[in-house]
Design brief:
heterodimer, A: 785 residues, Aldehyde Oxidoreductase, domain 3, Aldehyde Oxidoreductase, domain 4, seven-stranded mixed β-sheet, five-stranded mixed β-sheet, 28% helix, B: 161 residues, alpha+beta, Ubiquitin-like (UB roll), DNA polymerase, domain 1, 2 domains, 5 helices
Chain lengths: 785, 161
Amino acid sequence: MELHKTSPEISGMGHRMKRKEDSRFIQGRGNYVDDVNLPGMVYGHMVRSPYAHARLKSINTDAAKKLPGVLAIITGEDLAKANLAWMPTLFFDKQMVLATGKVLFQAQEVAFVVAEDRYTAADAAELVEVEYEELPVLVDPHKATDPSSPILREDREQKSNHIFHWEVGNREATDKAFANAAVKSKVHAVSQRCHPAPLETCGCVADFNKATERLTVYLTSQAPHAHRTLFALVGGIPEQNIRVVSPDIGGGFGNKVPIYPGYVCAVVASLTLGVPVKWIETRSENLQSTGFARDYHMTAELAADKDGKIKAMRVKTLADHGAFNAAAQPTKFPAGLFSVCTGSYDYPDAFCEVDGVYTNKAPGGIAYRCSFRITEAAYLIERAVDVLARDLKMDPADLRRKNYIQPKQFPYKTPLGWTYDSGNYEGALDKAMQMIGYKELRKEQEEKRKKGELMGIGISSFTEAVGAGPAHTFDIAGIKMFDSAEIRVHPTGKAICRMGTKSQGQGHETTYAQIVAQELGIPAKDVIVEEGDTDTAPYGLGTYASRSTPTSGAATAVAARKIRDKAKKIAAFLLEASEADLEWEPGKFFVKGAPGKAKSIQEIAFAAYTNVPPGLEAGLEAVDYYDPPNLTFPFGTYICVVDIDKGTGEIKVRRFVAVDDCGNMINPMVVEGQIHGGLTEGLGIAFMQLIDYDENGNVSGGSFMDYLIPTAVETPKWETGSTVTPSPHHPFGAKGVGESPNVGSPAAFVNAVVDALSHLGVKHIDMPITPWKVWNILKEKGVTG
Amino acid sequence: MTKKEVVKLKINGKDREALAEPRLLLVHFIREALGLTGTHVGCDTSNCGACTVIVNGKPVKSCTMFAVQADGAEVMTVEGLIKDGALHPLQEGFKEEHGLQCGFCTPGMLMSTYALLQKNAAPKEEEIRWGISGNLCRCTGYQNIVKAVQYASKKMAQGGK
């Protein structure tokens, strides 16, 4: 799919256009939710449980209420009267808004204090006296179904901590392939509990106007339209009376997809008090109570012949969902898109089973910078392939090459049911190997080993599945996962467009404008993009799962083409020519063979309001709701080189090459920026981050003191490259890309470290691979004293 | 609640005053009492640097300082970078080099790198990386922030500011 190259003036697709949204951010003029200040606004603060599992004996709010400036204190019992003590999760469970009966995780929401200012609200929260009776705590998911473990969820009919069993694939055929295989390899890998930790935490300002009965909620929401509908369905407020506004969002990465108890409490408080109520999470609250990701305890086995041709994959996984199954995911499958775990490789048989359990931990999880459970899947297969290569004593690049799905096999149906749209995996591998100088590195490694130095090279050849819908597979609370765009061209040829998605830093104000520029020839600088206000934007399901380009991006192109069809009629009228005689190039229609006889899109737009052809309605606008026929499947190969200090276990990422293929790019500068950021998040996950709990369910890793975020010093210089294999079903051949680096990189980092230690017999190390972990291994192996 | 006191300071060249409880953090004073919301709060442990401002010429995490401690001080926030409608070379650099995505860390980054360039007009890459090591960014991976600072450093050497 070749794209018409537009001029820099138009700046359609492929141009490295500077971002339009930057101007306000570099001047401190962004408008994030905590910047929203309304007349009469008051503040909410959450009282949280210090215990992981305890019976609530009593809540005494007398002292708190006496504090000057305190306006209201809401407890679970209060919410129960309005039938709001519990709310549905996004995946067939419910969770407590404020605790009633007992608490199930540390930092669980117990009461909501409203006061005239932030500090008073926090003071009053300290004065709320809650009496608890401690209960036995379940922390280890492997013990969830032990008869000796406490049953956590008394509200459920099923008296068990088991949430679901899910399986997919052909168990018999897979078992048979394993029985007959010459080589079998196995790896246990934990994709540890981590957190997206966008720099802006979650929060809202709920503003109920008692006179108009309208509720406006300024919300850190990646899905404002879906959230409006959920507020209507759960809260019983007529949907036309709810307006959700997602202002500028300081990063989301999946953290801002669910509805959290704080939002509901702020809404209830505003409904009660009739004034705007602001609730902003602290960082520690953010890490401890909202939006954790992963916590997948996985075993993968690969069966292969002695030459390394993979025959089958078998996966068994235990999923820790915490106290409530608050999985923020839009599939019908309890483990989301985890079954994409067969990866970039061609083999006939696979079987995957996942069991979900409850523990006394924060509920979730969310899809942290990935389609739900894709990062876990990609990490697992890329680790498993490396372990197989080690068992076969093959170079991991050679083993991958031997097993890739070949370009001519696309569309490719995987043994677990997905249909990959397009790919050229060997192309990405070749490019990455060439960029990094793979052969020379292997030689260097050999020489270093002789000298006793530790150096490793790690490869990851991931395939992602992004861009939910299609509607037949994906929905949120029954709402199908299409997405939308509305374009209005003004009489002077400038345009405004609105989408159902919501940027959290991805640069939509620029990239969507470039799509309009590409399709209509209106310069991107003349196109304003607005998202996030449910009163004005067309309905959509929001931004996550790298779905903006595959869905709203596609809708933008289709809407623009509808406009172009009408523009052609107007041009034919103005040029006194037949439509069949007109040709298009971005920005104008001209008569075939007579390029001088032309009408620009700006002239056509003016005519649409001033000189409409008879029989045609005035105006130049269109809307499109796009339901993609399939997901898009971006892919890439990442290669990482690490050096390890024998004395300290410290790991230095010396080089990292990322070759990504996301089909046709809208703005390569923005794509590279997404890759840099996602790789850095992957670095944090691989080496630094874990939301851990002690045996009493106390969370460690619950603040930025303990939950480490990579700084500029640890972060290496990323080297990026690309290949282009367009998606055959997307209107302009694009695939999503924002999540690829987070999905693909953890395996590359881990594979590199394991490779550095493989000659010592090390086959796997669980993330986060800290210097302490490595140092202990070196000590055990007698490498360091 | 303790009695509020008047805090007077010069911020972005303007004399301003407002009441503050002794425990009020400078960041909340700037954002809420003075209405300058460019300075952000990203954590509660002084790790993230989103609240960085310049106090008497030095970069300070304004969540670690009480407003009353800034009484009489000269403070600069992100809003003070623009001069006579012209962007500071650092602001230009962040835009030109795609040094921001969500924009939430950007004001703090701009303040830290402003202080860095005051001290070291031509920092090496490693010096830039250490210079922003008290500022967390979740979007960019820092690479283009480094380039943005290099852009500004060059431009300022050419007499840009």
